[in-house]
Amino acid sequence: MQSRYFTINDVPQGTPGRELFELHETALPDLAEGEVRIRNSWLSVDPYMRGRMSGVKTYIAPFTLGEPLEGAAVGDVIESRHPRLAVGDKVRHMAGWRDIAQLPGDQVEPLPGIEVPEQAYLGVLGMPGMTAWTGLYQIAGMQQGDNVLVSAASGAVGSLAVQLAKARGGTVVGIAGAPEKLEWLASHGIEAVSYRDRNAQQLTEALQAACPEGFDVYYENVGGVCLEAALNTLRTGGRIAVCGMIARYNAEGPAPGPSNLAMVLIKRLRMQGFIIFDHWNDYPRFLEEVGPQVANGEIDYAETIEEGLERTPDAFLALFEGANTGKMLVRL
Amino acid sequence: MQSRYFTINDVPQGTPGRELFELHETALPDLAEGEVRIRNSWLSVDPYMRGRMSGVKTYIAPFTLGEPLEGAAVGDVIESRHPRLAVGDKVRHMAGWRDIAQLPGDQVEPLPGIEVPEQAYLGVLGMPGMTAWTGLYQIAGMQQGDNVLVSAASGAVGSLAVQLAKARGGTVVGIAGAPEKLEWLASHGIEAVSYRDRNAQQLTEALQAACPEGFDVYYENVGGVCLEAALNTLRTGGRIAVCGMIARYNAEGPAPGPSNLAMVLIKRLRMQGFIIFDHWNDYPRFLEEVGPQVANGEIDYAETIEEGLERTPDAFLALFEGANTGKMLVRL
């Protein structure tokens, strides 16, 4: 059986171009004992993957040039030599960026039994959703009634963070760019603020207008002016969960940090970075809490879908242009 | 009775000049019920006072132009209309920057009974010492064996932080400037690293040489290149206690923050600012733990002393030139 997969052919500097990605085809070997073969139906593309293209080990090994890229995917088992997995099982695994995956069954997990579309396990009930929940509650220690600010608020992570925060009272403000994203936020009861054409001072003023009492929690996905404005508008004792800094992922060189970092001292802020893989033991608890809310429609989620394996690099690159509302997915 | 005291006559921009400070003399009124009169013997000058000169309320009210400046002081009660305080009592209070203080006895505390020179209650057993202890243990959560980095390591706060850290094993590195400060650190078993003539990259390399395994805790007193180099050399899961950012206190405008703040995410760092006044309930516990160590000489402390009330502004201004090893004091 043939498998088509993407590689990168170089370590990109700055914003990667489409030509970085190469589509290959290979004949898969027979299944070894314990392996399964999966026909992927949905692929996930996520901002963190940019870090894996840097050639440098950070919290996760870099992609190997010429080897298939990796990422979350869901699909159907089409052949199995693993005792726990049978043909027809719906599964999630990390052998994405390809159509047919073949890997040890121990690296594959059956989809949980909650009644949601399968691709939800790549988004609102997958890594991005788990990231929103962990950052808000475990890292930022959000309490009932806290005022919460979220950047990239209509993205895969942010769009759940704002809804979880909203359900616990308090004012929730989401920063986004495109008009349709601001509308999506507003339609979910979130105060939507645009970062477009605003410097840090102007964004600060817009946030102050949206939430004059200031924020108890800032959920950080972006960096840059968003962080600077957040530091200005947090209250004393505020907490920042640093989930991402997408503004910097394609930077070609160091750029200055916020000029108001002394706010950390003046306001006794706590700022904490986290990586969701460190917290994966809590996934069943997350699923138990958030899964039913997604299934019964209390929590909404948006998706931006590209069609076909060939579009996977385009879907990935579009993340950095802010082209997605909600989870960016590729449907095969 | 006459009291001589300092005021400021303007809100300084940038580094204050000596002419900002004016010495006045006034006749004190008779003691009101509940008041005491104190002959100050030692005055404290501290970097945080610069913030009170800004005319802006931060975590503490600004100094009022034309009114006596305030700050920690110790002295002897020379007259009392307070039931708890008698003539001859040694006390600590916040009516510094003057020779004779008159204030409600409820704002005055008798010195604890540990056998140390009285001015130690302005330094190693006072606010700076309490700040070192709180930042290291309560804020940064230092554990036995942690490698610890301290900036302004020979200052009033840093010089206790390095000794407390050293007593719990691990490698302790202190950043300082002047040769005599580096010597003081080395003589206490601390790896001393100079920030002088080093940019962030060069300081990073010097810190890596001093502690190749990296740091678990960074005790932040300075900001600027020290923070940038610390972010580069902290280990995954490292904690930063932000006690001060003296490099910025006299800045006339915003300056960029560290260009590598994304390390907070990559290394899952926790960075937390704190103000010691929020933690003052723990002072008895601090005194119980650290007091005996100071009294029996296990913990050393340095002092830099200016003589005479007239020199108080000079002592204060010298803080920003790094002129002090250990606590900067004025002896009256």
From TrEMBL, chains A, B:
Residue ranges crossing the lipid bilayer per the database entry: none
Entries under Pfam families matching the protein: ADH_N_2, ADH_zinc_N
The UniProt record lists the keyword Oxidoreductase: yes
Molecular functions (GO terms): oxidoreductase activity, acting on the CH-CH group of donors, NAD or NADP as acceptor
Swiss-Prot/TrEMBL keywords: Oxidoreductase
InterPro entries cross-referenced by the UniProt entry: ADH-like_C, ADH_N_2, ER, GroES-like_sf, MDR_fam, NAD(P)-bd_dom_sf
Domain of life: Bacteria
Gene3D superfamilies: Medium-chain alcohol dehydrogenases, catalytic domain, NAD(P)-binding Rossmann-like Domain
Domain (Enoyl reductase (ER)) ranges: 17-330
Name of the featured protein: NADP-dependent oxidoreductase
